[in-house]
Amino acid sequence: MILMLAALVVVLGVPAALTWQGQRRRGSGRGVAAVAAVFFPVAWTVWYVADERPYGVS
What we know:
By secondary structure, this protein is mainly α. It contains 2 helices and no strands.
């Protein structure tokens, strides 16, 4: 259980932290950076999963 929680924190936390850092470096305020840190990784993951072709389809 603890290992799964740690893996979830890493999987969700790393993209959020990188997005936060990038937005802050571009001069965005903390609020904008926080919103971007939450929504960008989620939106990108949903887009990636929905866009992927099924295995074996050319």
